[in-house]
Design goal:
Blueprint lengths: L1 E2 L5 E3 L10 H18 L4 H8 L18 H11 L2
Helix pairs in contact: 2-3
């Protein structure tokens, strides 16, 4: 995550897996879209609302800390660092 001089989040980076595979491409695209949304005035809570709770076929962990997908993980990180 990068912030501007005022402390506002302006950029997000996300890396998953080896460069060139689908997971890496997907996570990089997701981070770029979040950065574009931020550049166009989207607020972090709005981005979190849209990403949090998205499920995939391979959630990680159990219970209330279970991560449902890559978008869900990014939403949780944004929530912790907003």
């Amino acid at each position: 995550m990068n912030r501007d001089s005022a402390g506002k989040l302006v950029e997000v980076f996300c890396t998953l897996g080896k460069s060139g595979n689908c997971a890496a491409a997907y996570s990089q695209a997701l981070a770029r879209l979040v950065a574009v949304a931020l550049a166009h005035g989207a607020e972090i809570p709005e981005i979190i609302e849209h990403l949090k709770g998205i499920r995939c076929g391979e959630p990680w962990g159990l219970g209330p800390n279970q991560v449902l997908s890559c978008p869900d993980a990014l939403a949780r990180i944004l929530e912790e660092n907003q």
